[in-house]
Write a structure and sequence with these properties.
Largest sheet of chain A: 5 strands, parallel
Low-confidence stretches of chain A: none
Number of domains of chain A: 1
CATH class of chain A: Alpha Beta
Mean pLDDT of chain B: 92
Oligomer: heterodimer
Largest interface: A-B, 34 and 26 residues
Strand content of chain B: under 5%
Structural class of chain A: alpha/beta
CATH superfamily of the largest domain in chain B: MetI-like
Radius of gyration of chain B: 25 Å
CATH architecture of chain A: 3-Layer(aba) Sandwich
Largest sheet of chain B: 2 strands, antiparallel
Order of helices and strands of chain A: EEEHEEEHHHEHEE
Shape of chain B: globular
Radius of gyration of chain A: 17 Å
Chain lengths: ~210, ~550
């Protein structure tokens, strides 16, 4: 059971005004914590701080742990945090299969490829491994992007409004798909839309 | 004639004026090479060329310096992008780019020599306290026989050019997002660059790299200053032939071989690119995350900083030497300062300055007018959108086109005329002006036009009061680039001007070695200051143009 814990997080704007002040929360495996609030309240900055990519002109204090391991001293690539942004960012110079292979840890070539095909099949994208990402629909791209993140075996999942660019029909399907495939991870969800938040989720409203 | 047809013809006229000397130049090189021009070249030139003992050594030296310099420019650009971004050095890198891009090649070459010759500033700084030298050492020379001084000069000058081309492309590649995604998937920043960003970036900077390769293989003025004399580089060797009246055919044959060599290099680079691409594709998705970059990042930052510091110091040397009265080795700074030779040698300084300014302003005005005419007609669908034609003068060696252009000018009796020289400057400046303005012109929102039209503005009023002021920034940048290109033109001025026009570029190269070092520094400084002032004006003028409108709006 992995738990993502943030303690006493403060983020200051370049002028010194506080954006986030002494924020603490924790999310356990299988839980979803939704961060809500108006634009500029610091939701995305919290995710950037967690991944170690906070803009250098913002000052921050606080600690984050995942599985009791302090994240702050680790580089972004060592933190094992899966990140999904508003855009899917499928790499255009790779096929769908290569995008997923990019997420997978190294291993035997055939086994890795089989894993990619299996995960595509499970996501209803059977036979799309050699497709150019540009030929996929928005919903298909979102699923591939999520699969790529999960195949990298993250210990927690950070979602920054990942459904906001989808139309309402696809949106509900992708939401269900996400909660289903990432059900064993702590999930931190940033959203503007109350419909994105699953019923059992905790909500933290920022001002 | 219908108005639509007449305006289309105007556009095609601009294109014809641009393409005609290129075609004439190519034919004027091709025909003499095979001895097909009575009175100028009556026997083929290839056998004479191949029989010359300097031929193969010059080819070897050119390939060595051209490829090495291009490879180093590419490596340095990648190192800069991967290691230096998001460090404190980055802002200094960005700040140093405009002056380094503006300074002409020959002026920077002089600065480089002032640094690395045995009596140069680098030796002075470490002497005598570290080296023990009380006199300039004699165990190295610059320029050196292997052309490493030339390679250094080319790298210093071309690295900012490729870096700028890469920086212009990065915003469209979502670099920050790709790095975030790649790193949260567990990849080191270097792997994110090599597997995610560079494969997308390279095709977009390929044309710039080809321009640099063509330039490095065929440069004349820098090779005269920084390259060895025996054997010289191939272009310099050809210049010695073209100056000999009986060797026109051999010079033309050599110019053709140079063009073929450059083209073969493009093909070779493409082949290498395919091999690297195959290798990279096989590794791209193997899942290996790579080590963190921290160990190498410092090395990369140090390397880029050293190259840029070296370039800027080269410019500082021009200032120091041009105001020096007495500067003995091994002192790091002059003992006595003086501006006297600026006045006493005004014969060498003033006339070239005035001529350079005339040609530069003429080139700037004509290039801006031609580019605006073409792009405006393109916007109105009167002429097609073409990009490749503008690249021709940048990709074909100057020697190849200008030997032929000179031959045609000789036959037409137009050589040595100021209009011919101005025309050649215009041909070499126009591609940069069109390519700079094209992006801004094509991306300019047509809604501005529609809005102004609905308010009752006619075509000319909208163009002059809305379109041009909104595009003042790229227009001023393009004008500054046109001026910088004209000031730097050595070979067109020399060959088409028949030696009658002693511009700063000509005076600097021809005087080097024979004139006082302080006067050389003053010439190089003046040649650098003209484009620097133009780029400074390009920052200020759009602000001045837009400010009264902004004030009026606030009122």
């Amino acid at each position: 059971m992995a738990t993502l814990t943030v303690t006493s997080l403060s983020i200051q704007l370049p002028g010194g005004q506080p954006m986030i002040d002494e924020l603490s929360f924790s999310v356990a495996s299988g839980e979803v914590l939704a961060l809500t609030g108006p634009s500029g309240s610091g939701k995305s900055s919290i995710l950037a701080w967690l991944t170690g990519t906070l803009a250098s002109n913002l000052k921050s204090t606080g600690t984050a742990t995942l599985d009791d391991i302090a994240l702050n001293p680790l580089s972004t690539e060592q933190r094992h945090l899966g990140l999904m942004l508003q855009q899917d960012y499928l790499f255009p110079h790779m096929t769908v299969g290569q995008n997923l292979l990019f997420g997978l840890p190294p291993g035997v070539k055939q086994e890795r490829w089989q894993k990619v095909c299996r995960s595509l099949k499970a996501a209803g994208l059977d036979g799309m491994e050699n497709r150019d990402p540009a030929t996929l629909s928005g919903g298909q791209r979102a699923r591939v992007s999520l699969l790529r993140t999960l195949l990298s075996e993250p210990k927690a999942l950070l979602l920054d409004e990942p459904f906001s660019r989808l139309d309402s029909d696809r949106r509900s399907k992708i939401r269900e798909f996400t909660w289903q495939v990432a059900s064993d991870l702590p999930i931190l969800l940033v959203t503007h839309d109350a419909d994105d938040i699953p019923p059992a989720a905790k909500t933290l409203a920022l001002r | 004639m219908e108005r639509r047809t007449a305006t289309s013809l105007l556009g095609w006229g601009v294109l014809l004026l641009f393409v005609a000397p290129l075609c004439a130049g190519f034919l004027g090189t091709l025909l003499p090479a095979f001895g097909l021009v009575p009175g100028l070249a009556e026997t083929e030139g290839f056998s004479v060329l191949f029989a010359d003992a300097r031929f193969w050594p010059a080819v070897r030296l050119t390939l060595q310096t051209g490829f090495l310099a291009t490879a180093l420019v590419m490596v340095l650009t990648i190192v800069c992008l991967v290691c230096v971004q998001r460090t404190r050095v980055w802002r200094w890198v960005l700040a140093s780019l405009p002056p380094l891009l503006a300074v002409p090649h020959a002026a920077l070459a002089v600065g480089v020599l002032f640094l690395i010759t045995p009596s140069g500033w680098v030796a002075r700084v470490f002497s005598p306290w570290l080296t023990g030298w009380e006199r300039p050492p004699d165990f190295w020379v610059a320029p050196d026989a292997e052309g490493m001084t030339l390679v250094l000069g080319l790298v210093v000058k071309e690295f900012p050019f490729l870096l700028l081309a890469a920086l212009a492309q990065l915003p469209s590649l979502n670099v920050e997002a790709s790095l975030s995604i790649g790193r949260t998937l567990g990849y080191s920043p270097a792997r994110c660059w090599s597997r995610l960003i560079l494969p997308q970036l390279y095709p977009r900077i390929r044309s710039t790299l080809l321009i640099i390769l063509a330039f490095n293989l065929s440069v004349v003025d820098m090779a005269l200053l920084l390259g060895p004399g025996n054997p010289p580089t191939f272009s310099v060797f050809l210049m010695s032939l073209v100056n000999d009246p009986g060797m026109r055919a051999a010079a033309s044959a050599g110019a053709l071989i140079l063009a073929l060599g450059v083209f073969a290099s493009f093909v070779g680079l493409y082949g290498l690119e395919q091999l690297i691409s195959l290798w990279a594709k096989a590794r791209r998705a193997n899942g290996r995350r790579g080590a963190t970059l921290n160990r190498w990042r410092g090395v990369g930052v140090g390397l880029v900083s050293a190259v840029l510091l070296f370039s800027v110091l080269g410019l500082v040397m021009l200032v120091l030497w041009s105001f020096t009265r007495r500067w003995r080795f091994p002192d790091a700074l002059p003992q006595q300062w003086s501006a006297a030779h600026w006045a006493t040698r005004s014969d060498v300084l003033v006339q070239p300055l005035v001529l350079s300014v005339y040609f530069a302003i003429g080139t700037m005005v004509l290039a801006i007018v031609a580019a605006v005419v073409w792009l405006e007609l393109e916007r109105l669908n009167r002429v097609p959108q073409i990009n490749s034609v503008w690249f021709i003068p940048l990709l074909v060696p100057q020697v190849t086109l200008l030997f032929g252009w000179q031959a045609v000018a000789l036959l037409m009796g137009a050589d040595g005329h100021w209009l011919t020289v101005l025309y050649s400057h215009w041909v070499y400046a126009l591609p940069y002006v069109v390519l700079i303005l094209a992006t801004a012109w094509r991306e300019h929102d047509p809604a501005w036009h529609h809005a102004a039209n609905t308010l009752g503005g006619g075509y000319w009023r909208v163009l002059s009061r809305v379109h041009m002021p909104l595009l003042a920034k790229p227009l001023c940048q393009a004008a500054a680039v046109a001026l910088a290109v004209s000031v730097a033109q050595y070979l067109p001025t020399l060959l088409l001007g028949a030696g009658r026009y002693q511009t700063l570029a000509i005076e600097l190269v021809t005087s080097f070695g024979g004139v006082d070092r302080r006067v050389i520094a003053a010439l190089a400084l003046m040649q650098s200051l003209l484009p620097l002032l133009a780029f400074f004006a390009a920052l200020i003028v759009p602000w001045i143009i837009m400010k009264p409108r902004a004030r009026a709006w606030q009122r």
